[in-house]
What we know:
Chain A is mainly alpha-helical.
Amino acid sequence: MNRRFDIKHYQGFLAITCLCLFILYAPLIIVMIYSFNDSASITNWGGFSLRWYADVFTGPESEKFKLAAWNSLSIAVMAATVATTVATAAAIGMIRGGQFRGKSASFALISLPIMVPEIVTAVATLIFFSTIGFKLGTLSILVAHIVFCIPFAYLPISARLQGIEASYEEAAQDLYADRWRTFRYVLMPIMWPGILSGFLLAFIISLDDFIITNFIKGAGIETLPTAIFGSVKQGIKPNIMALSTLLLLFSIALVTLSYFIGKRGQEPYPTD
Amino acid sequence: MAAGTGSGRTVSATFSPVRGWLLLPSWLVIGIFLLVPVLLMLVYSFLTKEFRGGVIWEFSLAAYDQFVFDRGLFGDDPPKIEWAYITIFVRSILQALGATVLCLLIGFPTAYFIATRPANTRAIWLFLVTIPYWVNLLIRTVSMKFLIRDNGPLNEALLAIGVIDAPLQLINTNFAVQLGLFYSYLPFMVLPIYASVERYNFALSEAASDLYAPKWTILRSILLPVVKPGIIAGCILVFVPSLGAFLAPDLLGGAKTFMIGSLIEEQFKGNAGNWPFGAAASMILLSMVLVVLLFYARAQSREQT
Lengths: 272, 305
């Protein structure tokens, strides 16, 4: 069909898209480049070098960074594991539990951690722990992280579950599988990509958190974001740029992984 | 948030006898460690402050009063209107609105462009836009600070090509905070708009075109009304976190760019804090967010009926 113009195409939208990507990536790429700067000054370029990466692992602050990295990773693994388990159960209850009273209230409760601004969650959690006399430390950080990870794990899991036809479970039930076996051997294998991307999402969200952790970490405990924040308050140093680049690449690697898992998840269910 | 109601085709009740047990852990975890704390925070906002941080369990409206009135150091002067906190709230709203508009201006064309790519390249474009969201927000804000600081790469580049004669003072300005918020939440604008443009039936545009509608009229009168829910969702996803942002105003701004988030944080750090006041500020922020979300939920349910 001959048209006066291509109705989908608008002049300038490609340019704005490129501008959008440029804005999103330019600061990150520049920090990446400067992390390889040999000079101790962050302004002048002194040639290519890996010295700041060596500094992150062996320099005077390396012990602090290692401890912070360990705290961050262990909290993220535990928080994401618990949150994914809770979210998987909740998703099955919500989406395979039929209609029930309080369904929208349950959904509101599950989404509450996303709707409440982070700083408010931080204040409320600090007040709560201080009132009940709970000692601030790794455990308080872990509990807070589990809470805000639940909705992030819930979303991909429930989205996956909604796309699965009920006939699989019904067939299992007709063959006298009990509910646990129906879940374990029929539903879970099909839900798996959703559960895995929910876990990765929760893991990244936990690793990313600064505001809530900063409020409730207590004295003497640092995660990577709070350690970086503390350092940056005294000025941006080259070793922080190297550390940031490492963390940035780690996040991108995880997201890429999650993307490919999600992509596999969109394919038809395995039939073999 | 698309989940929750079931799509009809897959409505199943296989697990309905045990749904209470399945939902119980999420009710307990979020109920005890978020809902109860928020209610406790409401109580705290009506208590008397203790000078070393913390509270005295005695009812008081001082925290809310302090927002609007200045009663002097000992609280017995005749009340004057206190503009400092009102200014901070108004500034936060304006900054968040500004960030939302900027995100919309860049985000809409981007989302539209990506949604109209052929299916095989669409995923790659979309992935490129999403990646920065997953990079630590702190690291992104620090990178922005590095880029726009007085003798940073941006100023050096502008000086080198001769656009400016002296370095621009960007850091510690409202503009820097604006830029930081825009940069932090841009992907939030693109994704929902992308989702609604992708579902848009371009036969509608073709019909309008056959009836000799000019191109930009098609965009404005045919496409925009259909994708409006996506645009509103994007605006809310940018506005809400911007309103309570802490990192961008703290790292890119200074004392003159104070926002609600920094005001709240200040009340709980060190010994100078005022917990009831911080709780009251948090309650006001939360109420503002809930009003926006309720407004959105109502608009959405009206859209569907």
